[in-house]
Amino acid sequence: MQFFRPIAVKLSVALSSFLMLFMLMAAISYFNSKEYESSLVTVVEQALPDLRQSANATIQVKELPFLTEQLARAETQAMRRLAMQDIQHFNRQIEAYLAEQSNTQLQLKFAAIQSELEHLDQLVDQQLIYQHKIQQRIAELYSFFEIFESTVNRSTFSTDWIVGFSATLMRVARLSNINRLNDLRQLGSQIEQSLEKQKLMLVQMDEATQQQALILHEQIAAIIFDQEGLLQMRTEQLRLQGRATGRNRFIRSMVQDFGFEIEHQGIQMQRQLSEDVGILRQSLHQQTYWIGLISISALVFLILMVWFIKIQVINRLVDLKKRVIEQVENPVKQLSIKGYDEIAELSKAFNFFAEKVTEHKNRVELLSRTDALTGVHNRRGFDYHLERVLHQAKEQNLPLSLLMIDVDFFKNYNDFYGHQAGDQSLKEVANLLRKVFMRHQDFVARYGGEEFACILPDTSKEAACQMAEQLINFLRAMNIEHQASQVSQHLTVSIGVASCEGSRLVSAEDLIELADTALYEAKSKGRNRMVVKQ
Questions:
Q1: How far apart are CA 280 and CA 293, in angstroms?
Q2: Is 31 helix (H, G, I), strand (E, B) or coil?
Q3: Reading across the β-sheet that carries 530-533, which strands appear in turn?
């Protein structure tokens, strides 16, 4: 019986060796699986939230220029305060994000942006104060007009003096409408020279009439040329307006630079995440290699183990990394990893955040090219679309027409019916433009204030003129009351049409200038009409 013991020993040793190898393999597999789980949890619980916060911060920074634009264009103190409240709410969100970061440079840049925003708020506040004082001075000026008319009716002023003084008052009335500082100074000098000339004419009057005229001269001079006169306050208002505009542009530049850095930080996080996934893949590959060496004696078991790891883990991680890189390059693609584990959840999370980033990006882009009041495209959308269709028309040798449309006497409409009614009339005009220019290639935009623009691709001069006349007739049929108009009892528009053939197409600036010239001519000829230039 002792001859069989060596075989038994060998079998025991072989079985023990197999069991030891199996246990070693099991131990190694267990510890490696724990390490993999820890690495994957780190990616899911730390890297993804950081990436989401970076994406949200990038989107929020892109909204700041629109908030500063609202502040710079605030027409009342209430609008200024509301704009600052929105900006402060934005500041708190960005401060919370920066507090979790260790980037001192970003914190310093954001502190500089906050300082510039405070200065812009101060400029807008001062500008609104001057605006209120100017309105008071304009009220005094209207009262003076009534006094002047009453005095002229009771006195024996000469006709030449009355005509000259009335012309001076017409110049004074223009002070509140001039928006260029040099023009304002020139007009002030003209008014001063005109008043001096009027004083020289007083020698020809009797003493009582001279006294009345001198009183009128002193009153109008006080309203215009005092230290807080209309001319000085308008000058200060235009200076503040220029400074506020410059400050706003500077802030937009700073915010753009700040946004680029945050976006760059997010890209670095994405790259780091991809590198972490790559390192994890390499680590798993090495672990699989060592498990294969140890499990040679248990080939079938180890082959199944390797197959499982290869198919269920490594290949899916490689596929995930490849699709993540493809999605970064092409956001339209969706990640699709089957399963109910962390890798599948990771792909779903990537899809979710990619959709959110794309959604917010499209929303911001749409808002930036849409007019908030009328719902049509704004000036930015107009400029972008005109360059695109102009290039297309040149390539395909197609005609292109541009309509510049101005609501006649809209300022009078606002003064007579109020700004809310004015806003409503602009909405109705915009809705009418959508109905008239309803082809898929037609493009309607609010060019600024009461002015609209319509781009008509593949439209000849005759067709553009026909559509312009149709617009005028439809607006006449709507019969929107406008008692303050000087050309009609209903709301009217003046239209400038510019049309070019494909072979003769010019630049966008020249086409706009041509349409503006036509619009100016239509207004010069009495408004409520259309003029075409080619």
A1: 20
A2: helix
A3: 443-448, 451-457, 400-407, 493-500, 530-533
Angle between helices 342-368 and 5-42 (to 10 degrees): 20
Helices (H) and strands (E) in the chain, counts: 16, 5
pLDDT in tens, 409-452: 999 999 999 999 999 999 999 999 999 998 889 999 999 889 99
Kind and range of the H or E run holding 384: helix 379-396
292: closest CA among 32, 16, 12?
32
Q: Which residues are catalytic?
A: 450
Instruction: Express each pLDDT in 442-461 by its tens digit.
Output: 999 999 889 999 999 999 89
How many angstroms separate the Cα of 255 from the Cα of each of 66, 94, 125, 224?
A: 11, 12, 22, 41
Two structure tokens written together for 20: 């030891």
Please state, in angstroms and rounded to a whole number, the distance separating the CA atoms of residues 463 and 467. 6
| Residue pointed to by tokens 């502040």 | 71
Residue 433 tokens read as 């433009």
Sign of CA dihedral 428, 429, 432, 434: negative
User: 246-261 as b/e, with b when 16 or more CB fall inside 10 Å?
Assistant: ebbeebbebbeebbeb
Helices (H), 155-180: 159-173
Of 335, 355, 318, 269, give the one whose Cα is nearest residue 48: 269
> The tokens of 26 are what?
């099991």
Q: Which two tokens stand for residue 492?
A: 């009217």
Q: Which of 12-21, 180-189, 220-229 has the lowest mean pLDDT?
A: 12-21
454: which strand partners?
403, 444
* DSSP reduced 3-state for 496: strand
Provide the 10 A C-beta neighbour count for residue 413.
Answer: 24
Q: How many CB atoms lie within 10 A of CB 52?
A: 17
Residue with the two structure tokens 């009183």? 215
pLDDT in tens, 76-89: 888 888 888 888 88
